[in-house]
Amino acid sequence: MYPDTPSVSQLSQVISQAAAPAFLLGALAAFIAVLISRLNRIIDRTVVLNGIPDHDAVRSRLKADLPRLMRRAAMLNRAIFWAVVASISVTLLVIVAFVTAFFQLQHERGVAIFFMISLGAFTISLVDFAREVRIALSEFDHYA
Questions:
Q1: Nearest C-alpha neighbor of 124 from the set 2, 35, 15, 26
Q2: Are 63 and 138 within 8 A, CB to CB?
Q3: CA distance 121 to 118
Q4: What is the pLDDT of residues 20-74, one digit of tens each?
Q5: Residue 101 carries which DSSP code?
Q6: Which sequence spans correspond to the domains of the chain?
Q7: DSSP tag of 142
Q8: Euclidean distance between CA atoms 109 and 93, whole angstroms
Q9: Counting beta carbons within 10 angstroms of the beta carbon of residue 93, is it exposed (0 to 12), middle (13 to 18) or buried (19 or more)?
């Protein structure tokens, strides 16, 4: 037997409470796009450097930058992973809010847990991004 369907006022309350997580989800999507763009640039630069022939004495010294680029790529990969975890947590937060409203259950604890998981994962992602930004600019970046 199903519980009574939630009232319009209960659903509107859940929808209004889901507005903040929806904005967070939009911000996370934009942040992931920035991270992917940076990762693509690193990959493109790595391909160019790997394409330099060893007998090209003038440009072959630029290959010394490959380990730094690989570290940057690894940091961005981790940042993307944690930003996606944060996005999934926000999505689950909204789902839990609506499911618990439908079944007229207390949702505060579940929503709070998913919100904390999301912000924690977002924080880890931001830390990896900050580390990557810190080592991003090098003298090698000014040459082709």
A1: 35
A2: no
A3: 5
A4: 888 999 999 999 999 999 999 999 999 999 999 989 988 888 899 999 999 999 9
A5: H
A6: 18-142
A7: G
A8: 10
A9: buried
Continuous H helices in 7-143 = 8-17, 19-50, 66-102, 108-134
pLDDT of residue 144: 58
Per-residue pLDDT tens digits for 101-116: 778 788 778 888 999 9
Angle between helices 19-50 and 8-17 (to 10 degrees): 40
Task: Tell me the pLDDT band of 143, cut-offs 50, 70 and 90.
Answer: low
How is residue 18 written in tokens?
């889901």
Rg from Cα positions in the chain? 22
The set of residues, in sequence order, having a beta carbon less than 8 Å from that of 59 and lying 6+ positions away, is 52, 143, 144
* Residue 105 CA to its chain's centroid (Å): 31
What long-range pairs does 20-25 form, CB within 8 A, spacing at least 24? 21/90, 21/93, 21/94, 21/115, 21/118, 22/94, 24/90, 24/118, 25/87, 25/90, 25/91, 25/94
45, 109 Cβ separation under 8 angstroms: no
Residue predicted with more confidence, 7 or 86: 86
Give the pLDDT of residue 142.
62
